[in-house]
Design brief:
8 helices; Nucleotidyltransferase, domain 5; single chain; Rossmann fold; three-stranded antiparallel beta sheet; alpha/beta; six-stranded parallel beta sheet
């Protein structure tokens, strides 16, 4: 999935189910995807539960949307966010949405927005239910938005889930000799596993991650007369 820095995005934050402490990192990540034309955070701002958000709202020019909890056990915030999302959709001025929540209640909303041809980026904690993650074009776990420290990196060669994802992608896009362009592998993974991100495994780029997987061979191939264009190819080891 191509990222377009000119895309107009609506950032809708479920403050009841999002972390205020990663607000700056969240908006920095969104800036890689497009322009945050709309920034709104939903919640009952009369309660003390959301006081951690207030400083971030002012600093980052996020509009707080007040929603009282009329009934115990019912989440009025979700309904308010969904209604606003549909209003924004029908205005037809946006290219995509960033839904910030760890709540599966937004699964249908994400599906509906994608059905209308808009891109949907999800942001939430790793506890986010799988249906909501899968409903987004791309889902970013907010835990990885913290600056990655060298000591946080680990050997992922024995991670069976990661290996299955990578090998499936190589099988799907490789040539007869088993070699696959890393760009094609990355595109295939992003389309089939919305939550995939090299930072989940301790590396900021897919190219860096694959070099540390001991079941892969990695080649750099230069193209063009000036040999300035370098493409990375990968394949499983022990391929004849």
């Amino acid at each position: 999935m191509a990222e377009n820095g000119n895309n107009k995005l609506a950032v809708l934050i479920d403050a009841d189910n999002a972390q205020a402490s990663v607000c700056a990192e969240l908006l920095a990540e969104i800036s890689k995807l497009g322009v945050a034309s709309v920034k709104r955070a939903y919640g009952d701002w009369t309660t003390t539960n959301l006081k951690g958000w207030k400083a971030h709202l002012h600093k980052h020019a996020i509009q707080p949307v007040q929603q009282f909890s009329y009934t115990q056990g019912k989440n009025a915030t979700d309904s308010s966010l969904i209604i606003d999302a549909m209003d924004l959709l029908h205005e037809g001025k946006l290219d995509g949405f960033c839904l910030v929540s760890s709540d599966s209640d937004f699964t249908r909303l994400a599906n509906r927005l994608r059905e209308s041809g808009l891109v949907v980026y999800g942001f939430g904690e790793k506890k986010t239910p799988e249906p909501f993650v899968s409903a987004c074009d791309k889902f970013v776990y907010t835990e990885i938005l913290r600056q990655l420290k060298e000591s946080d990196k680990s050997d992922e060669s024995k991670n069976p889930e990661l290996k299955a994802i990578v090998m499936s992608a190589i099988d799907a896009v490789s040539r007869d000799d088993g070699w696959a362009p890393l760009s094609a592998v990355g595109s295939y993974i992003n389309k089939n596993t919305p939550s995939f991100d090299p930072r989940n495994y301790g590396y900021d780029k897919l190219g860096k991650l694959v070099r540390y997987l001991d079941y892969l061979e990695v080649q750099e191939r230069t193209f063009g007369e000036d040999s300035m264009h370098v493409h990375i190819y990968i394949r499983a080891k022990n391929v004849a």
